[in-house]
Design a protein that fits this description.
Organism: Segatella sinensis
Number of strands: 20
Number of helices: 12
Distance between the termini: 37 Å
Radius of gyration: 20 Å
Shape: globular
CATH class: Alpha Beta
Protein name: Agmatine deiminase family protein
CATH superfamily: L-arginine/glycine Amidinotransferase, Chain A
Structural class: alpha/beta
Keywords: Hydrolase
Low-confidence stretches: 1-6
Helix content: 25-40%
Strand content: 25-35%
């Protein structure tokens, strides 16, 4: 019997599918990290240490020698052998949003077909809020420096950040209307236009648009990876808010109601696991505080911004022991066979992101 291969069998994998490496874009004095560069560098070294226990690490940095030296001091020789360093100029460090988005072939091919395509969308600083041109050039430079064992697809005509989409690996894509319809991204496209483009880019059959759950202090216009994450077996981990005094209460109650009403492609309700809302954290310039009367900016702390590795999940903690522990329990329920490891993310949120935002996973076989 003759089986013909479908004209297109590339799919957007789920994050928990096998990975070759995690990409990090290293902080340096020319970024907004400058006031607390030592602290954020320590956070990066901690992430590098955990990642290289499970898989390879691809590092983009304009300060190659010092980055290599710091990593060599922190990591064992075996871990260091898993590090791939590439030198290039950068504006900032949010690899989730400037890194490539991977499509993986689900079929069996003859040897000349490259089974991984890396989609290089335009990154424009979340709607031209920040300098972005160097970061937007990273994927192409990595490709030309021979980092990838994959084809690079140019999608520079469309603005899309990795943090704004979530995939279940079987044809459903999650996103948020507030981000994908935000100013200076893809006007004048409507929601219908963008919906059909997402289906075309990622070969999905279902796009779930969430309309609620925007964290105060989030300058991405509401990335999905700060509020709702997909886990195996039709599970969604989402940020809940039970404190009626919190300014975000109504918005997150509405998110919860919306999640209770959506169904899988097969028509089943999702298994919902609620993550706690961290106590509000404010930035007063010289220090962070949880004092409700603070005049500082509220930071978008969230437990949803975790990173899935081969065999582990790294999740953000905020020096709030009870809530940190509750978040860990919920994530462990979703990923029972993985180690769940907390990393203090108080420095990361000073730049309005967390662990997932700093990282981008690359699928098995994607790097040289």
């Amino acid at each position: 019997m003759h089986h013909s291969i479908l004209p297109c069998d590339f799919a957007l994998p789920a994050e928990w599918e096998p990975q070759s490496a995690i990409m990090l874009t290293w902080p340096h004095g020319g970024t907004d990290w400058k006031p607390y560069l030592r602290q954020i560098t320590n956070t990066y070294l901690q992430l590098a240490d955990i990642i290289t226990r499970y898989e390879d690490l691809l590092v983009v940095t304009p300060i190659l020698e010092s980055t290599q030296r710091m990593l060599a001091e922190k990591l064992s020789e075996g871990q260091m052998s898993r590090v791939h360093l590439y030198e290039m100029d950068t504006n900032d460090t949010w690899a989730r949003d400037h890194g490539p988005i991977s499509m993986v072939s689900r079929g069996r091919h003859n040897s000349h077909v490259i089974p991984i395509h890396l989609l290089d969308f335009k990154f424009n600083g979340w709607g031209e809020k920040f300098a972005w041109k160097k970061d937007n050039a990273i994927n192409l430079q990595l490709y030309y420096q021979g980092a990838f064992n994959a084809a690079l697809e140019n999608h520079q005509g469309f603005v899309l950040e990795g943090g704004s989409i979530e995939s279940d690996g079987k044809g459903t894509l999650f996103t948020t209307s507030q981000c994908l319809l935000a100013p200076h991204r893809n006007q004048p496209f409507t929601r219908e236009n963008i919906d059909s483009q997402l289906r075309n880019f990622f070969h999905v059959r279902n796009v779930v648009w969430l309309d609620h759950g925007n964290l105060v202090g989030d300058d991405t216009d509401g990335h999905i990876d700060t509020i709702v994450r997909v886990a195996p077996h039709d599970t969604l981990l989402y940020v809940g808010c039970d404190d009626a005094e919190d300014e975000q209460y109504e918005d997150f109650q509405a998110l919860e109601k919306q999640l209770q009403k959506i169904f899988t492609y097969e028509g089943y309700p999702y298994r919902l696991l609620k993550l706690p809302m961290p106590d509000a954290i404010y930035d007063e310039g010289d220090r962070l505080t949880t004092d409700k009367n603070s005049k500082g900016d509220r930071l978008p702390a969230t437990y949803a911004n975790f990173l899935i590795l081969n065999g582990a999940v790294i999740y953000p903690t905020y020096n709030q022991p009870e809530k940190d522990e509750e978040a860990k329990r919920q994530i462990q329920l979703a990923f029972p066979d993985r180690d769940v490891i907390g990393v203090d993310s108080l420095t990361i949120i000073r730049q309005h992101g967390s662990i997932h935002c700093l990282t981008m996973q690359l699928p098995e076989g994607a790097i040289k």
